[in-house]
Design goal:
241 residues, alpha/beta, 5-stranded parallel beta sheet, 20% strand, WH-like_DNA-bd_sf, phosphoprotein, OmpR/PhoB-type_DNA-bd
Length: 241
């Protein structure tokens, strides 16, 4: 995923960019509001007469610091939201409730207060990006997903391999459906535990490993779910043809 980091402190930006890169993000750094808007908005969308919230920015998420040198981050958020639906997470030291409400009213998708836990920030990035998956990436209209011989029927929670039904437990299906939402995207272990088991990572790591191993066996495709060492798992869509 490409991510736009809007942060005027080069040291903070460098440290955060390194962390994000280790988790599979391609980070573009903008040092002020003007740089951010140029990077984010296609030329035609700078014309109000041609503005369209469906415009594609090329970024999955914007991390927007509010204390920018050239213009207030709230103002930048408002301009972004008038031109594109790209998710915006405000990252700021302003912790008061009124500031948070103001940011959300301007169209921010989330609001993270400094200092923050990196794991929480990563989880929030993944959460807002999933809520705004582009229509072309959201899967077939009949709520089914095909991954080579594996077919997942979301409404009925049925899975088949080469036309033969495969019996999965509830958690196995939930895990597979989560990974299948975005093939190729790395889901962090903590994030998977939180969303599938609705609990924290402590003491649940072995459970996740067992479920992944079981899925690989039942789907007869060990390579379908790839382990990303030190990070988590991703679903690898089989090559077409």
């Amino acid at each position: 995923m490409r991510l736009l980091l809007v942060e005027d402190d080069n040291h903070v930006a460098a440290a955060l960019s390194a962390v994000l890169a280790r988790h599979g993000f391609e980070v573009v750094h903008a040092r002020n509001g003007e740089e951010a808007l140029r990077a984010l908005l296609p030329p035609d969308t700078n014309d109000p007469a041609k503005s369209d919230k469906s415009a594609k920015s090329g970024f999955g998420v914007v991390l927007l610091d509010l204390g920018l040198p050239d213009q207030d981050g709230y103002e930048v958020c408002g301009k972004i939201r008038k031109r594109t639906a790209t998710p915006v997470i405000m990252v700021t030291a302003r912790a008061d409730v009124r500031s948070r409400i103001h940011g959300l009213n301007l169209g921010a998708d989330d609001y993270v207060v400094k200092p923050y836990d990196t794991g929480e920030l990563l989880a929030r990035i993944h959460a807002v990006s999933r809520r705004t998956v582009p229509e072309e990436a959201a899967g077939p209209a009949d709520d089914s997903l095909s991954l080579g011989p594996v077919r997942i029927e979301l409404p009925t929670r049925q899975v088949s391999v080469a036309g033969q039904s495969v019996q999965l437990t509830r958690k196995e299906f939930d895990l597979l459906a989560l990974l299948a939402q975005r093939p190729g995207v790395v889901f962090r272990r903590e994030q998977i535990i939180s969303e599938v088991w609705r609990t924290s990572w402590e003491g649940t790591g072995r459970t996740l490993e067992v479920h992944v191993a079981s899925l690989r066996s039942k789907l007869r495709s060990p390579a379908l779910i790839e382990t990303v060492r030190g990070v988590g798992y991703r679903l690898v869509a089989p090559a077409q043809g």
